[in-house]
Amino acid sequence: MRRFIGEKARIAKYVYVNFPFGCLSIRVCVIDPSIIPQQPGVIVAKVYYVGDWAIMCGPVFAETPFNYAFKGLEMYNYGTWLKEALESSGEHQVTSVPTWDFYKLGPGEYEKVLEEYDVLVFSDVEAKNFQLAPSFFDRKKFGTEVLVFPDRIRLTVDAIRRGTGAMFLGGWLSFTGEMGKGGWNRTGLKDVLPVQCLDYEDLVESTEGFTPKVGAKSKKRLEGIKLDTFPPILGYNKTIARRESDVLLTVKQTGDPLLVHGKFGKGKVLAYMSDPAPHWGCNFVFWKQYRDFWLECLKLVV
Fold first, then answer.
1. Most buried among 2, 191, 269, 295, by the most CB within 10 A?
2. Could you give the angle at the alpha carbon of 32 between the alpha carbons of 248 and 193, nearest 5°?
3. Same domain, 183 and 120
4. Per-residue pLDDT for 172 more than 70?
5. Predicted structure pTM score
6. How many structural domains compose the chain?
7. Does residue 5 sit in the same domain as residue 55?
């Protein structure tokens, strides 16, 4: 549901906006938020962005054969670039969530997220974060109660079917992933995606990098983006585009799909097979049109 500050009310996916007209106030029902006049305080979409956080432990010093010591601990939020890009227009609010916080959501908490947010973003979030719960590994709870919880895969699929937008982004733990660790191909997410995942490791990487090739429908969907200036990416997840989906970008060197748009029920879904963050995206995040690119991508799913 859209949320607005001021004289605006929301009903389901429809938004009623009060426009002053002389001494009268005209109430208009707006379906597409992109046609709402740009006004301070208007929030077009709330985005729940899971992934692209990391904790570095080390360096590790082996002072003797029996003594190993960690001499540092640092947390990285690689999602900062994408979060700032999506919020750069002032229209959207993004909540950036580490995978471990998503994993630890208790019963009913993810349901509240799905009610509150308009768009879901998953990047480097392996299937286990959806399929497992911390209580499964808490021996104190064994035998005290039946340990079952709502299926987050099902909840995600149902939310998108009802109209929640979604962006699935690449990485070592996305799509099928490194050694199959991504695991999206083994879950119901495979039915939502506008691409078909492989059943074996899907990483394609090169130190020389890969360049995007513009698809026939890119100009209309990514208007104003100079895609010929898109910097090289250092890797991507190999997938197969579905026939009913729109392939907006491919990888020039291989022809594999890179950016694909599709629909699932009432929801709009975008798959970007490379990473919005380093290391695959270490050149990408410094592209002058990085923010513009992601704002256009967000429009495709709102």
1. 269
2. 40
3. yes
4. yes
5. 0.83
6. 2
7. no
